[in-house]
Automatic annotation (TrEMBL):
GO terms for molecular function: oxidoreductase activity, acting on the CH-OH group of donors, NAD or NADP as acceptor. It holds the Pfam family Epimerase. Residues 10-266 form the NAD-dependent epimerase/dehydratase domain. This is Ketoreductase azaE. SUPFAM superfamilies: NAD(P)-binding Rossmann-fold domains (SSF51735). The gene is azaE.
């Protein structure tokens, strides 16, 4: 697939989301026209107002109030002759009262919904890139020694009922498998690529006004910046790999047009981290926070069960070079200083 003209239009779902906001920045820098889906006109106006003036003419928005609703994306896909679709619209959170309603339905129905709309109403669409997750690769219930793009989470619907982490992993896995099956069953004219990013840190969106709006994967850094771990360091979670959101955005944008990316998954992961390493990265970048950060002698041993990962495909096919932890965390912490004294 040759590189598109600078005026090719992209449909970007979940347009105000953490990852989508960085994808949007890169698309605009490259000269693409973008229609971002949002849940309300208010969110659309906030998104547009946050953009530099030079990009205002490149962006519009379409309202998709509920990604699970039948025919949710039909009108958005019909609204313009799109060359590409990047589908990021699925929430990531840890509050779960109903695994099917909160995670599995949004993942499966949202994913198949955008593919169905693209298939029926998007004859000009060349490729769809889906934001999946490392949760579809990892077995977070009982980690394997090594993971790559051939790995799939074995969690079941029964596992999803145990806790929100299992529910999220199961939902993303069901959603991704449904996407591949849709393409197998329907043979659409577009190609499909999948981005399976791990725990994602990075600078927060420009338009956030409250710490409560910060994405879940950045909460650890936010808590440290706000002095909420000054007395004790919380233990590192069972996901011990990270990636910078800007690298995740680059992966999506390149997967759109790189010919060899068609029909492939990409395990997008930079390196390992611990909460101790995060606190030291913040201390190095923002020494004025020293007294509000976890104690220097905090102990956070790297777990013996830590899994291996193979990210060679993302480097070879997409040409990714990963941002190191110190820069990623430092930039993220700086972007959160506006929330240091803000009430939740």
């Amino acid at each position: 697939m040759p590189p598109p003209s600078s005026h090719a239009r992209v449909l970007l779902t979940g347009g105000t989301g953490f990852i989508a906001s960085h994808i949007l920045d890169q698309l605009l820098d490259l000269g693409y026209l973008v229609t971002a889906t949002v849940r309300s006109s208010e969110k659309g106006k906030i998104l547009l107002a946050s953009l530099p003036e030079k990009f205002q003419a490149q962006v519009d928005y379409a309202i998709v109030r509920d990604v699970v609703a039948e025919n949710a994306f039909d009108d958005a896909v019909k609204s313009a002759p799109f060359a590409f679709v990047i589908h990021t619209a699925m929430p990531y959170h840890t509050n779960c009262s109903d695994p099917v309603k909160d995670f599995i339905d949004p993942a499966v129905k949202g994913t198949t919904g955008i593919l169905r709309a693209a298939h029926l109403y998007g004859p000009t669409i060349k490729r769809v890139v889906l934001t999946s997750s490392s949760a579809t690769i990892l077995n977070i219930k009982n980690h394997e020694k090594m993971y790559n793009e051939d790995s799939y989470s074995p969690l079941t619907l029964e596992d999803a009922m145990e806790n929100s982490h299992f529910a999220y992993s199961t939902g993303k896995t069901f959603g991704e498998r449904a996407a591949w099956k849709f393409c197998e069953d329907n043979n659409p004219s577009f190609e499909l690529s999948m981005i399976n990013n791990t725990y994602t840190f990075g600078p927060v969106q420009r338009f956030l006004t409250s710490p409560s709006q910060v994405n879940t994967s950045n909460h650890c850094i936010l808590a440290m910046v706000r002095g909420e771990m000054k007395h004790a360091l919380e233990p590192t979670a069972k996901i011990v790999t990270f990636v910078d959101v800007r690298d995740v955005a680059t992966a999506h944008v390149r997967a759109m047009t790189v010919p060899e990316a068609a029909g492939k998954r990409f395990f997008v992961v930079a390196d390992y981290f611990t909460n101790k390493a995060i606190s030291e990265a913040i201390r190095e970048r923002l020494p004025e926070l020293d007294e509000d950060l976890p104690p220097r002698d905090s102990h956070d041993e790297f777990p013996a069960w830590a899994y291996g990962f193979d990210n060679s495909r993302s480097k070879a096919v997409l040409g990714l070079t990963y941002t190191p932890l110190a820069k990623c965390v430092g930039d993220t912490a700086e972007s959160m200083m506006q929330f240091r004294e803000a009430s939740k």
